[in-house]
Amino acid sequence: MNKTILIGMTALALTIGGCGRKTPVADASSGAIDPNAGAPVTAADDSVDLVELPAMQADLVAKAGSDTIYFGTDQYGLDQASRATLGAQARWMLANPSVRGSIEGHADERGTREYNLALGERRANSAKDFLIASGVPAGRLTVISWGKERPAAQGSDESAWAQNRRAVTVVVK
């Protein structure tokens, strides 16, 4: 690969990766879990006022089974497995009232950027609506759509696309 192209792609990846995530800080209110324990530090973006809580995120995954739900191609409706996962997430959020959730919607690489951003938002809103219906106060939830900008899996096949059609509940303060 041409060295100039590689440098340009690295700069673009760093720019995209730095958007929307804040540096994790300790959650002194819970006292039971150190949110900074072994947590990667991500770039700060002053345009988004979210602080991720990695230790609380790990607790959510451990107790709810997953922080991620998946969707079919061009779909944003919730299937039975997604409802079960979100139900467990809602119970965890109700048991941890000091945290908030940022629901991040994603899409696979197919489709235009605008289409995928809109689809990611619909997926995140489906998850948010379910959590609200399960008793989580709406004020504790935000929605972000990443479209196809932050794939969970690289590749251009059904296996990769299936992993990228998702909504992730990120625990934030």
Descriptive report:
The protein has 173 residues and is of the alpha+beta class. It contains five helices and four strands. Helix 4 (113-133) links the parallel strand 2 (100-106) and strand 3 (141-147). The radius of gyration is 16 Å and the shape is globular. Mean pLDDT is 81; it is low at 5-47.
List the helices and strands and how they pair.
Layout: H1 3-17, H2 54-64, E1 68-70, H3 80-95, E2 100-106, H4 113-133, E3 141-147, H5 158-164, E4 166-172
Parallel strand pairs: 2-3
Antiparallel strand pairs: 1-4, 2-4
Helix pairs in contact: 2-3, 3-4
Shape: globular
What is the number of strand segments? 4
Distance between the termini: 41 Å
Biggest sheet strand line-up: 1-4-2-3
The largest pleated sheet is described as:
4 strands, mixed
pLDDT averaged over residues: 81
Structural class of the secondary elements? alpha+beta
So how many helices?
A: 5
Return the string of H and E elements.
Answer: HHEHEHEHE
Indicate the radius of gyration in whole angstroms: 16 Å
Query: Which range best describes the helical content: under 10%, 10-25%, 25-40%, 40-55%, 55-70% or over 70%?
Result: 40-55%
Strand content: 5-15%
